[in-house]
Design brief:
This protein is an alpha+beta fold. Helix content is 16%, strand content 36%. α2 crosses α4. It comes from Bacillus spongiae. InterPro entries: CvfB_fam, CvfB_S1_2nd, CvfB_S1_3rd, CvfB_S1_st, CvfB_WH, NA-bd_OB-fold, WH-like_DNA-bd_sf.
């Protein structure tokens, strides 16, 4: 008896028809036949035809067939969308057939908050376990290297979007929409993104091997604006005045605002340049208080 496996495409002969579909046979298959339900038929099918089908297990665990061939099968890779999350099992993804495919919790990050959310996308292939059950398997770094495009040219400071495909303690790996393999060091992000999340970063380096270093941190000018708003909002909680100015000690600035003294002075300088605040006798005030 031939060992037909879920996750593969095979050609069978339509042996007979029942009230709910067709039963498929093969000269090497000595079972009762594999069901091709009417809902899985594409086009006109008759007894005696040879049909190409994708094999999977139905909800009852029976090997069944569909003529709706998915984009990925055993041995091929592709992007799939997460459709459900079960913290005790893993995540389910859609491959374009009537049954969703599980990616086991064992193949996902240790912390559930870093798991893909519904709508995120993962680059996977299909495999089967020792019981013949089909599951999704994340692409390895070697597979990503095979499909990646080498970056070249003047990309510095350009913004790229891509999907997170690997998480490590030292940083985040992203495959950009252009196909570039990117790395974001832990110092270049304010929080760790989810596996499969769509992210955007700016190019800070193009490596000799064609990969890219990205940063999730904003340009200095953008960050300055964000820091300025942080200081301005803090002042609002104090009636538009604070006992800190550009000569305040660095350790106090770090403790109160979580900023370096340089970042604090740049942000404060922006607020003063914009005419929103002024300094006097070691204090900073809203301009309207004059």
């Amino acid at each position: 008896m031939y060992d037909f496996q879920a996750g593969k495409v095979e050609v069978f002969n339509v042996d007979r028809e029942a009230s709910f579909g067709f039963f498929l046979q093969d000269q090497d298959y000595d079972g009762d036949g594999i069901l091709l339900h009417y809902s899985e038929v594409v086009g006109d099918v008759r007894v005696g035809d040879d049909v190409e089908v994708f094999l999977f297990h139905d909800k009852q665990g029976r090997l069944t067939a569909t003529m709706k061939i998915p984009a990925i099968v055993q041995g091929t890779y592709g992007w799939v969308e997460v459709v459900d999350v079960h913290p005790d099992l893993g995540v389910f993804v859609s491959i374009g057939i009537s049954k969703d495919v599980l990616i086991s919790a064992d193949d996902l990050p240790r912390f559930v908050e870093l798991w893909p959310a519904k709508g995120d996308q993962l680059y996977i292939t299909l495999e089967t376990d020792k019981n013949g059950r089909m599951y999704g398997k994340l692409a390895t770094e070697n597979i990503i290297k095979e499909i990646a495009t080498n970056a070249e040219g003047k990309l510095y400071n350009q913004k790229l979007k891509g999907r997170v495909y690997r998480l490590l303690r030292v940083g985040t790996y992203v495959l950009s929409e252009e196909g570039y393999r990117c790395f974001v060091h832990e110092t270049q992000r304010t929080k760790e993104p989810r596996l499969g999340e769509l992210v955007e970063g700016r190019v800070v380096d193009v490596k000799p091997d064609g990969s890219i270093n990205l940063s999730f941190l904003p340009f200095k000018q953008e960050k300055m604006g964000g820091d300025a708003e942080k200081i301005y909002e803090y002042m609002a909680t104090r009636g538009g005045a604070m006992p800190y100015w550009d000569k305040t000690q660095a350790d106090i600035i770090q403790e109160i605002f979580g900023l370096s003294k340089g970042a604090f002075k740049r942000a404060l300088g922006k607020l003063m340049k914009d005419g929103r605040v002024y300094q006097e006798d070691g204090w900073t005030y809203y301009s309207e208080r004059k």
